[in-house]
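We treat protein structure as text, and this decision shapes the records that our systems exchange. Below, we set out a record of this kind in full and without editing:

***
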Amino acid sequence: MNTYDAKETFRRTGSSLGRLDETSMGPVMFASWSEAVLSAVTEIFGVTKSDLQGKSRRRVFAWARQVGAALHYQYGNCAAAAVGDVYGSRHYSWVYYSRQTVSKAMGRSELTTGQVQAVYNLAKSRFIEE
């Protein structure tokens, strides 16, 4: 029985995925802005969707949740209460607080601004505008 050898496959095909041709794969696209933002936040911050919707107050989850909610509310076409529901049934005032917190953090640090911009750019590239 032959075993999968990633180094040998890469040497032969130029791809570690073997027969799967990476150039024929289309980008992930979402019809709703909320799904595009959730997907971008999970990819950039390395958290899961259940972490974003959970009750954990750990900094990594809370910050990712706040960035997602701020971008979702600012660029999405929905009310703050609906955004709060997407992020684990949170109150609409939490959405306003998240927007304010992200805005202040972006004013203090270029690194944070770049991080938020990366999430926005990824979400924008995955969103199918009608």
